[in-house]
Amino acid sequence: MEFLGFLARRLAWSVLVLVGLSVVIFVIARVVPGDPARMALGPRASLEQVTELQEKLGLNLPLYQQYGRFVGGLARGELGQSLLTERSVNLDIRTTFPATLELVITTVIIAFLFGVPLGVAAARWKDRWPDNLVRAFAIVAAVMPTFFIALLLQVLAGYVLQILPTTGRLPTGTDFQADITGLLIVDGLLKGQFHVVFEAMRHLLLPALALSLATMGQMARITRASMIDVSRQDYIEAARAFGVPDRVRLFKYQLRPAFVPPLTIMGLEFASLIGGAFVVELIFSWPGMAAYGIRAITQKDLNAIMGVVMVSGLFFVLVNLLIDVLVGWVDPRIRIRGRRA
Amino acid sequence: MSDLAALSNSFQNWYRFSRNPTAVIGLLIVVVAILAALLAPHITPYPDHVGAIVDFRNRHQPPSAAHWFGTDNVGRDILTRVIFGLRVSLMLAFVVLIIAVPFGTVMGLLAGYFGGWTEIVIMRLTDIALALPPLIMALAVAAVLEPSLMNAMLAIASLWWTWHTRLVYSMVRQIRALEYVEAAETLGASKVHILFREILPNCISAIAVKTSLDAGFVILIGASLSFLGLGIQPPTPDLGTMVSDGASFLPDYWWESLLPGSAILFVALGFNLLGDGLRDLFDVEDVR
Fold it and tell me: Is residue B287 part of a domain?
């Protein structure tokens, strides 16, 4: 019951953030630039053409009505038409988003799989060489520009060693329709086409690794700090005094509460992860939302830009909602206290 | 505190700082980068290579004694352009932080001290800003306005203040309850006095740490923006643009892309190590 209340508060909260987000995006896209119709048609379009497009898009209405239409559309999950391709932005995003999602999920898995154990090792051997190594790695990983890591990995693994593919999601000419979830690995498994799964993983490895390094370092850093924090608690001291074996103490009593900060940070990291995905997708010719977004940006396709930014924001808010629920489950104290610190 | 005591205190601080090798390395890197950027026209080997100069006979030269970092695809000296590129990166970090840090700090002070509606409005605003990836926000703004360094900086600054607001807010919440603040209130000190003379000084060290760490990250975001083609426009040298231009000549002419990339890494690393060092010095554990 108490958990439901917590869930309801968090949900209301997310809706509020999304409303705010929609206002910000609306202001950027509709109020700041002047006339979107003129921008879409270019300087040589006639006045009639501009007025026609304005009427078609509702740009002649007062701002609050325009905002109403925009939000109404959002509520129906309708992002409007692309000003340039005249296709629905929904369709465009629906076809490109799964590729981005697959990349980001893989990235998070890699970051957790390596980051958390690295942090535990650093805490276990605090101030000894494993600790120093992990800390140095975390700092360098944090300040490496994502595009720089991506280029380095591409050159090293792709060109010099020639062990991994450096572009796209599958080898060209692969006959496979990812029409169930859009995620190649999942759809490949569902359809029992294991060679597709294998190829998809091979293609994912480099981009996901490039994107995950910074987060991995961050995870290691936070896990380390939080493990050390927890190890100073009385109950850990007690466990030590009772002679509970090191390994049991470390993994059973220390890791669970120490797991909360990395999880929470993961949620915040998502914003920079989505931004980084833009860069990585460009470098590895990944057919995701970034390529679409960048084209929209260079061609000033406002509806598409608003769509991409809104979907990125929505993604971020949903992930954080999920993480809060997860954290509430891992650490019951948080459910009672309400919001996470 | 007497002048002598203050002096001895700062010597002690410097001593503790200088015992921390990473912090000293960080400080060195930052100082070198800033000096190089300021003195760029005087110390670079080919200052005229900053503009749209073309020297096709010397294009794609590997690093050598004449060109330490090699030359690019139109024959310009890359070291020269990297040093001038530092100017852009540092300027970006400087302008963003000089807007974002004071604004964010004041907002955090207000939200933390007054509570109520002030707190609700400000803190909800920071939540919304957190939901926007800064790079994508900057991209969107750069797209809607003209892609220029100025617009990019404004876009980044318009989100960045929220981090400082959150930091200061959480500190003020703790400080507000301390007895000395209560004492000042009882004595009838003005709100402005309490906020800026009683509470703010206790937040300064944490803000300094965060600002130093931030400088590195703002440089990274700026570099990503120009890597995507939405930063400063050519022919002004910009590190991100150089990496992206050079990337099409990988792996054969690796220096054209990887050396400017290393320069970004170098500066960002400097600010980060410095921030880490300051954090140990000031003993403010939880600032990231």
Answer: no
Strand partners, A88: A81
3-state helix, strand, coil in chain A (%, to 5): 75, 0, 25
Q: Is residue B134 part of a domain?
A: yes
With CA atoms as reference, report the closest residue to B228 among A204, A208, A297: A297
Q: How long is chain B?
A: 288
Q: What distance in Å separates residue B190's CA from the closest CA in chain A?
A: 31
- For residue B125, the enclosing domain spans 2-282
* The pLDDT of residue A202: 86
Is residue B105 in a domain? yes
Contact at CB, A139 and B228, closer than 8 angstroms: no
How many angstroms separate the CA atoms of A33 and A36, rounded?
7
Query: Cβ contacts (< 8 Å) between B273 and chain A: which residues?
Result: 139
Q: Count Cβ atoms within 10 A of the Cβ of residue A326 and give its class: 0-12 exposed, 13-18 middle, 19 or more buried.
A: middle
Residue B77: strand pairing partners: B71
* Complete domains list, chain A, with CATH: 93-290 (1.10.3720.10)
User: For residue A317, what are its two tokens?
Assistant: 């808010």
For residue B288, being part of any structural domain is answered with no
Cis before A36 (ω within 30): no
Chain A contact probe: residue of B132, B163, B170, B286 with most A CBs at under 10 A: B132
This model of the complex carries an ipTM of 0.82
Say if residues B211 and B105 touch (Cβ distance below 8 Å): no
**Reported pTM:** 0.85
Query: Which of B136, B143, B258 is the closest to A275 by Cβ?
Result: B136
- Here the tokens at position A40 are 């879409």
Tell whether the model's pLDDT for residue A338 goes beyond 50. Answer: no
Residue B71: φ, ψ to 5°:
-125, 160
Residue B20's closest CA among B282, B285, B267? B282
* B8, containing H or E segment: helix B3-18
d(CA A130, CA A135): 9
> Distance between CA B139 and CA B253 in Å, rounded?
29
Residue A123 pLDDT > 70:
yes
State the total domains in chain B.
1
* pLDDT tens-place string over residues A67-104: 888 788 777 777 777 766 677 888 888 888 888 988 99
Whichever domain contains B180, its CATH number is 1.10.3720.10
Q: Cis ω on the peptide bond leading into residue A33 (within 30° of 0)? A: no
Mean pLDDT value of segment B202-215: 89
Which residue intervals of B39-133 are DSSP H helices?
A: 40-43, 78-114, 116-130
Rounded to whole angstroms, the Cα distance separating B27 from B280 reads 14
